[in-house]
Design a protein that fits this description.
about 375 residues; alpha/beta; Aspartate Aminotransferase, domain 1; Aspartate Aminotransferase, domain 2; 2 domains; four-stranded antiparallel sheet; 14 helices; binds pyridoxal-5'-phosphate
Length: about 375
């Protein structure tokens, strides 16, 4: 039975909205520092780029500051042109978003309705159930296999009312990766009447031999949408910008639903500069590779199990994860509890700078041995 809200107008919201559990973001640094009365805490909770934005992005932003009294370009001309060149797709295939979260939400608002359904994997990115539920559609979570997507089971779960399938590759928070062959087989198995969202937020971290040719698949599968973000390897999480690549007719539908100025002017300028700065992305990838070795070997020497990860984070298993999380906080290190993902025995840590990783490992040793 729905509980009656204290404020009458809240009863106007459909029950699928009042039943939603809010997204739980990583604890902000400033909040922890206020609480502890300290400076210099370390945040390894939200898969942000520890290098910060690139100098080229900062320079581009400075020169654009004078323009912020004007509305942004609602069609994102320059940014679409840069993305189109990068991927060899027409501008008409691009949907820009206020973060790729916005693109995921546009998928839901464009294609889902009460009575429809969306399929995603157990332990997949929390935004898929959220955007699905907000439309009144039903979410179908397919049991994971080794913490990753079971694509065969997901293909079997596509029943009549299923309009959208979300696939995160690599997945957050488990870091698992599907091989290109598996994804292709899946795309071939799924009806062309179902939209497949391939969320590649961590694509830039993959070594070349593991990078899927997902953009090339768009030509063969008009029901595919590939999403990318500037929040991770490009270092722009605070500006909110991401994009989807899809068949132009799909992109056109989604562009009708979005807010006219969903990507702000500074985000557009920064994203163009970031896309150009390949050296910075390469540096971010290399730093992440080294940090992943540092953290996983540290976990191993503490005797802590972890899920091998292809992203810029790693998820590990500790007894009393909530207690370990709290003790890490008191030691000035923020990681991410993932109980809301149905993984109450796990914590997720983002790969940081060498020193930050070191601080995490020594804090974990203390927090863990108590
Ligand atoms: C971080 C992340 C995103 C990106 O979110 P933005 O809105 O672009 O910041 C998308 N999908 C997954 C799986 C992620 O982990």
């Amino acid at each position: 039975m729905p509980v009656r809200a204290a404020v009458d107008v809240c009863d106007l919201a459909p029950s699928y909205v009042s039943a939603m559990a809010p997204y739980q973001p990583g604890k902000p640094l400033s909040e922890l520092e206020r609480e502890l009365g300290i400076a210099g805490a370390v945040k390894l909770a939200s898969n942000e780029n520890p290098l910060g934005p690139s100098p080229r992005v900062l320079a581009a932003l400075k020169s654009a500051l004078g323009e912020i009294a004007r509305y942004p370009d609602g069609n994102g001309f320059e940014l679409k042109r840069a993305i189109a060149r990068r991927h060899g797709v027409p501008e008409s295939a691009i949907i820009l978003g206020n973060g790729s979260n916005d693109v995921l939400e546009l998928v839901a608002r464009t294609f889902l309705t009460p009575g429809a359904a969306a399929v995603y994997a157990q332990y997949a990115f929390a935004v898929y159930p959220l955007v699905t539920q907000a439309t009144g559609a039903t979410g179908i979570a397919v049991a994971a296999r080794n913490f990753g997507h079971d694509l065969n089971a997901m293909a079997r779960a596509v029943a009549d009312q299923v309009k959208v399938v979300f696939v995160a590759n690599p997945n957050n928070p488990t870091g698992t990766l599907l091989r290109p062959r598996e994804v292709l087989t899946f795309l071939e198995a799924v009806s062309p009447r179902v939209l497949v969202v391939l969320d590649e937020a961590y694509a830039e971290y993959l070594p070349d031999e593991l990078k899927p040719e997902s953009v090339a698949w768009l030509a063969q599968f008009p029901n595919l949408i590939v999403t990318r973000t500037f929040s991770k390897a490009f270092g722009l999480a605070g500006l909110r910008v991401g994009y989807g690549l899809a068949h132009p007719e799909v992109a056109d539908l989604m562009n009708r639903v979005r807010q006219p100025f969903n990507v702000n002017s500074l985000a557009q300028v920064a994203a163009v500069a970031a896309l150009d700065d390949e050296a910075f992305v390469a540096q971010s990838r290399e730093l992440n590779r080294q940090g992943m070795v540092q953290i996983t070997s540290g976990l191993r020497s503490l005797g802590i199990d972890f899920i091998p990860s292809y992203g810029n984070f790693v998820t590990f298993r500790v007894p009393d994860a909530q207690g370990v999380y709290d003790r890490l906080l008191r030691l000035g290190v923020i990681v991410r509890p993932i109980a809301s993902y149905g993984m109450p025995d796990y914590l997720r840590v983002t790969i940081g700078l060498r020193d930050e990783n070191g601080r995490f490992l020594s804090a974990l040793e203390q927090a863990f041995s108590r």
